[in-house]
TrEMBL record:
Residues 151-408 form the Protein kinase domain. This is Uncharacterized protein. Residues 409-438 form the AGC-kinase C-terminal domain. Belongs to the protein kinase superfamily. AGC Ser/Thr protein kinase family. The keyword ATP-binding applies. The lineage of its organism: Eukaryota, Metazoa, Ecdysozoa, Arthropoda, Chelicerata. ATP binds at residue 189. GO terms for molecular function: ATP binding; phosphatidylinositol binding; protein serine/threonine kinase activity. Gene3D superfamilies: Phosphorylase Kinase, domain 1, Phox-like domain, Transferase(Phosphotransferase) domain 1. PANTHER family: RIBOSOMAL PROTEIN S6 KINASE. Keywords: ATP-binding, Kinase, Nucleotide-binding, Phosphoprotein, Serine/threonine-protein kinase, Transferase.
Length: 438
């Protein structure tokens, strides 16, 4: 079977210093998985293949000699260049016989010992030896009798600041889960225990809602924490949107409705999500959306209570966050507007290649709509992307106010939350198509 690989997105990670990694979705031998690679890894592979396959005329996107290597424009341009490089590499089937290529795309990798391999990435962390042996109180979610050997770890499907996420099969149950494996050294070194426990609390509550990734249970060893999560295998909304550019209005409405239901539930639990974006929205095997990555959630806020932490993703930041004002749950409805706009237009509403210009657009410029957009879609976007949070749709009656909008008139909310409405798109997943945000 031919190898299919696409460089679909990029992320900025930090370990002593910032660096950019590029996410690659790989399809091979009836399986799909996600890997992350740095620019220098592409460069090394490219140099080797140039000597073996000169006829391919492989070209690596250049380095930036001046300016900001983390600018949105530069990273997007480099991602596209790296994707072009990958497509050129794979145009000759003989490339797959090269060991370095098979290693780069993890074509032969077994995950039998990969959890232990994580330690090689943590060698820069120095901490007293007993710190890693401290047992962290995981509360009622912890099952003390569970151990890593109860699972067959299949693929690396995500990576974050504190560890990795794997698809794994429980040997006795024969059930596939996503397991988030976190390094205790790093958590304790960075004093992030409360942050991790807050994310665990949100994940536990999520089991009560159909459109949120939930935590089944957790366990730990002397070095690592394990969160056993829903396995979601339809790919990121970002992946599908990048392939199709725009969605039809009925399809975008369906996804926006399920997102609204999920966000409304989080708000009812006193949780602000704060990081809604296509990369954090997954599709399940049937095509329903599932929100993931609750690392930026704020717990314990009711109705109009506020917080002021500056966090989020640049393209989706609400004006009040940019102004460093106290903000409330309305920031999530701004993000819903931005995501809905992107589904209908292919780019976020105030996007610019220059972050400073984009921030100015968010704060001061009106939304621009394409000519053939329906009046209902235009109106809900104007209402969600209202720069004054007090006038924003959802400011008074939260999700119920949004559900009543004309744009959602075709939606029967009871049927939607019962998953009785057939999704407009079936991802036709194979066994291991999964992506999760750390």
């Amino acid at each position: 079977m031919a190898l299919v690989a696409n460089v679909v997105s990029s992320e900025v990670w930090e370990q002593n210093k910032k660096y950019t990694v590029y996410k690659i979705v790989v399809k091979y031998d009836d399986q799909n998985w996600t890997i992350h690679r740095r620019y220098n890894e592409f460069s090394k592979l490219c140099d080797g293949l140039k000597k073996l396959f000169p006829h391919l005329h492989l070209k690596l996107p250049g380095k930036k000699l001046f300016g900001n290597n983390f600018s949105t424009d530069f990273i997007r341009s480099r991602r596209q260049g790296l994707d072009n490089l990958v497509q050129r590499m794979l145009s000759d089937s003989q490339v797959l016989n090269v060991p370095d290529v098979r290693s780069f795309f993890q074509l032969d990798r077994s995950l039998k010992n990969s959890i232990d391999d994580d330690d090689e990435h943590d060698e820069t962390m120095t901490i007293t030896s007993n710190s890693s042996e401290k047992m962290i109180n995981l509360g009622p979610s912890e099952k003390q009798h569970v151990k890593p050997s109860d699972f067959e770890f299949l693929r690396t499907i995500g990576k974050g600041s504190f560890g990795k996420v794997y698809s794994a099969r429980h040997k006795k149950e024969d059930t596939i889960y996503a397991i988030k494996v976190l390094n205790k050294k790093m958590i304790l070194k960075r004093n992030e225990k409360n942050h991790i426990m807050s994310e665990r609390n949100v994940l536990l509550k999520n089991l009560n809602h159909p459109f949120l990734v939930g935590l089944y249970y957790s366990f730990q060893t002397k070095d690592k924490l394990y969160f056993v999560l829903d396995y979601v295998n339809g790919g990121e909304l970002f992946f599908h949107l990048s392939k199709e550019r725009v969605f039809t209005e009925p399809r975008a409405r369906f996804y926006a409705a399920e997102i609204t239901s999920a966000i409304g539930y989080l708000h009812s639990q006193g949780i602000i999500y704060r990081d809604l974006k296509p990369e954090n929205i997954l599709l399940d095997s049937d095509g329903h959306i599932i929100l993931t990555d609750f690392g930026l959630c704020k717990e314990g806020l009711r109705e109009r209570e506020t917080t002021n932490t500056f966090c989020g993703t640049p393209e989706y930041l609400a004006p009040e966050v940019l102004r460093k004002e106290a903000y409330d749950r309305c920031v999530d409805w701004w993000c819903l507007g931005a995501v809905l706009f992107e589904m209908l237009n292919s780019l976020p509403p105030f996007y610019s290649r220059d972050n400073a210009e984009m921030y100015d657009n968010i704060l001061h410029k009106p939304v621009r709509f394409r000519a053939n957009m329906s009046s209902a879609a235009r109106n809900i976007l104007e209402s969600l992307l209202q720069k004054d949070k007090r006038k924003r749709l959802g400011a008074i009656d939260d999700a119920d106010e949004i559900k009543r909008h004309e744009f959602f008139k075709p939606i029967n909310w009871q049927d939607l939350e019962a998953k009785s409405i057939p999704p407009p798109f079936n991802p036709n997943v194979v066994r291991f198509f999964f992506s999760v945000v750390h």
